[in-house]
Amino acid sequence: MSDASLPKRRSELGEILYHLVRDPLGLAGLVIVMLILASAIFAPLIAPYDPIALNVPDRLQGPSAAHLMGTDQLGRDTFSRVIWGGRVALQVALPTIGGAIFFGLLLGMIAGYGPKWLDNLIVLVFDTIRSFPTVMFALAVVALVGPSLNTVIVVIMVTSIPTYGRVVRTLTQSLKEAEFITAEKSLGASTPRIMAVHILPNVLGPLAVLAAMDIPTVVGLEAGLSFLGMGVKPPTPSWGSLLNDGYNLIRNTPWLIIAGGIPLILTTIGFTFLGEALRDVVDPKLRGKGGK
Amino acid sequence: MTVLDIRNLSVSYATPRGELKALREVSMTVPERSIVGIVGESGCGKSTLISAIIRLMAPNAQVGAGSVAFQGDDLLTLADAQMRALRGTEISMVFQDPMQTHNPVLTVGRQMMDIQYRDALSKAEKRKRAADMLALVGIPDAQARLNQYPFEFSGGMRQRIAIAMALMAKPSLLIADEPTTALDATLEVQIIKRLRELQDDIGCSILFISHHLGVIAELCDEVVVMYAGEVVEAGSVRDVFHSPAHPYTRALLECDPGHIKEKTRNLPTIPGSIPDMVNLPGGCIFADRCPMRFEACATRPAMAEARTGHKAACHLIKVEETA
Amino acid sequence: MLSYIVRRIGLAALITVLAVTALFLIVHMIPGDPVSTMLGPRATPEMRAALETRMGLDRPLIVQIGLFFANMLHGDLGMDVFSNRPVTDIVLGQVPHTLALILFSITWSAALGIALGCYSAVNRNSLGDRLTGILSVSVIAVPAFVVALYSLLIFAVKLQWFPAIGAGEAGDWGDQFHHLVLPSLAIGLSWVGYIARLVRASMLEVMGEGHIRTARAFGLPERRIIFGYALRMAILPTVTVIGVGMGFLLSAAVFTEIVFSRPGLGKLVIDSITTRNYPVVMGSVLFSTLIFVASTTLADIINAILDPRIRAGK
């Protein structure tokens, strides 16, 4: 079988992007996600005001030319707080998901590839962690330890590990039986090598999809905890604390709630569209079926 | 009286590449109380033909022309409700894959009673009928097994259940789409035997599709040979298999492993492959792969009679007659 | 059937034991002495002494865990720091409110989701299907409390169609229902989308399978095929999803109760945290974990009833 007749293959990433932009929802998701990432990264350049600068005489104004989304009860510019809130959201989401993926990969591969007793043990640990309703558990830990950004990160990370671990485990188990693994073993490949070189690349695709779909959950969780006053401490701007202020002032002005909710809705919709489109691309079974 | 009379049936599929002409002017008949086999390789149009008869075609299928007369009435002109009334009562089917035929979460008994929904019988009577039918196809302890789920039966038994379900309403026509292809040889023999006994008892006709020549020879009275959407030969099993009139049939018989008399390392094959049915070459459909093609083959041959009741679509037949 | 139920409950019990132990250990891992951790800064010396004896804090850890479980099985989760009422009573008093909210929400949202999913599958690629698809994907991930806040703002504060606070007059069904609408919307909205897509995918898969073709070949009416055969199978994943989703439902309920000032576990937990009433916090978390484990177990058992293949271990 000669490859000479096949057209030059795009790189893996290029292939994914190519299919992604052809899906209208995927494209929309990608654009939204890029916008959010950009605004978070370039927050100092985009935000017109310092998000924690007080300006009490101008408090509780509606949207205007000077303040795109109005001001809050301490006169701070809401729009700037929204932009900087994006940073906080990402500051929580990225380490959380990164850590969850790391430990999920580790434990999942061990569970899928290793001896049965170890698998059973790890699955039991996963199931136990998953038996806690996430927010309840987070509240309990925060109650004991006190609210802080790091607490939130650790708690959400730990409760997310089973999600990734299970997927990795299932994939590893099915790959373990694949012929090419047996072939590698017969050539004397060591276990760590098999896991790193052969199993890992096959697992990354579905993991990326999972992560994209998980970011809205994590961001929502952080916002929720901050809304309850159990997350980031004031005056750090978080979308959740914006919503908390808005809730307390709901009869005075609707703008804080509107301003706090919009970025959350955009983030969740954007990443969900992106995740769905990614899944259609990454899962070859669906590619031919033409439709969600 | 003919049970099924198909005349000049043409069916095509709308595909992105163009119109795929899956059946072109197919004609054949199924007499009363007889077993007619359809033989041909993958892509010959057998599945399309069946789906056209029972009118459960894919959404992109279009009937171009022709008629499918079942006991006198053209099925293609019937209203949906009328057609549905025939399914499972006058015309029934047995499918190829026994593992997929039954609903996995309902008991066999429940499914067998469901298909009797039109009959004004009590539940107990329907159950008895189902149990009797199961016993008839050779499933022991039928009453008890009605309460079991399909996954509790082996493939061979599931196929027997499928046959029981198909024959329960004593149809006039049973269409069997490669019913033994998924089973091993010993099972195949048993099921064929049982099928013939049942056909004799009930008096129905069977349209039996297969690519296994030996089974067709064993079971059928008549056989129709199809190639790439056309009927190339039709006649009694004896005539067609002992004195094949069409080069394709001859090649098929030569390639059949059961037919080979001398020991050989290389199994014979028919060189080439089936034509592209979107962009058809004109003329005889088999001309490309036929060792005996000549100038006349540039036009499509009509069905010519090689002897009484034995027809084939080949220019060579006329040549022989005039010779 | 029975053996499956027994095995499943056994597993649930094991997981509960592990989860509770984990909670216990977490409390003990916090720097500082466990008594302060558990009782908070409001504890009086008498309370501290009582707790130390009850938990046997001078005994080995294993014994402590054992005592903890023994107490738990007797329904003793400790005493509230303020009123000295048993935590169990306090928590049990609030659980019905939360459960009522959750069950109401999931019932209508699952019904609507299944209907939409079924419709989408049967009318694949129609305008209705595409529209439902986009809307479903959009609402799936929006956090419940955001929906709660927006609906509070628009429908309660601005339009004044629905009440903004509380659960309504006890005994007055109409009033209580009126108070349930917005909170259950907040909880149920994302579930409608999620279930609709799940059922759609499930139905499409089932409808492509051989046995549906058989049913058609036997002339069964289309309605019977869609509901009695296809939907019957397509619904199975939904049962599991709801069972596992109880965790999310509980979380969503917490937020919703806060936003709409409704009584329930959520409000209880938040108030207790604010007032540093730690025994109540722990009791609430324990209870919600129990509810969660129970719901996943129940979902698995219902699944086994509906799908005989699971019972057989296939």
Describe the structure.
The complex is a heterotrimer of chains A (292), B (323) and C (314). Chain A is mainly alpha-helical and 292 residues long. Helices cover 72% and strands 0% of the residues of chain A. Chain A has helices at 12-22, 24-41, 43-46, 78-113, 116-130, 134-145, 149-176, 179-186, 191-227, 239-248, 255-282, 284-287. The longest helix of chain A has 37 residues, at 191-227. Chain A is elongated, with a radius of gyration of 23 Å. In chain B, α7 links the parallel β7 and β8. Chain B is globular and about 65 Å long. Chain B has 323 residues and is an alpha/beta fold. In chain B, α4 (123-136) packs across α6 (155-167) and α6 runs parallel beside α7 (185-202). Chain B is 31% helix and 25% strand. Chain B has an eight-stranded mixed sheet, with helices on both faces.
Work out the helix count of chain B.
11
Number of strands of chain B: 12
| CA distance, first residue to last residue of chain A | 34 Å
Q: Could you list the spans of chain B in which at least 5 consecutive residues all have pLDDT below 50?
A: none
| SSE series of chain A | HHHHHHHHHHHH
Strand content of chain B: 15-25%
What about the largest sheet of chain A? none
Question: What's the rounded overall pLDDT mean of chain B?
Answer: 88
Shape of chain B: globular
What is the CA-atom radius of gyration of chain A, in angstroms?
A: 23 Å
Largest sheet: spatial strand order of chain B: 6-7-8-3-9-10-12-11
Number of strands of chain A: 0
Distance between the termini of chain B: 36 Å
Q: Which chain pair shows the most residues in contact?
A: A-C, 50 and 54 residues
State the main characteristics:
heterotrimer; B: 323 residues; alpha/beta; 8-stranded mixed beta sheet; 4-stranded antiparallel beta sheet; 11 helices; 31% helix; globular; C: 314 residues; 0% strand
Topology:
The complex is a heterotrimer of chains A (292), B (323) and C (314).
Chain A: H1 12-22, H2 24-41, H3 43-46, H4 78-113, H5 116-130, H6 134-145, H7 149-176, H8 179-186, H9 191-227, H10 239-248, H11 255-282, H12 284-287
Helix pairs in contact in A: 2-4, 2-11, 4-5, 4-7, 4-9, 4-11, 5-7, 6-7, 7-9, 9-10, 9-11, 10-11
Chain B: E1 2-15, E2 18-31, E3 35-39, H1 46-53, E4 61-70, E5 73-74, H2 80-86, E6 91-94, H3 108-114, H4 123-136, H5 142-145, H6 155-167, E7 173-177, H7 185-202, E8 205-210, H8 213-219, E9 222-227, E10 230-236, H9 237-242, H10 247-255, E11 304-307, E12 310-312, H11 315-322
Chain C: H1 2-29, H2 34-39, H3 45-55, H4 61-73, H5 87-122, H6 127-140, H7 144-158, H8 173-207, H9 210-217, H10 222-234, H11 236-259, H12 265-274, H13 278-306, H14 308-311
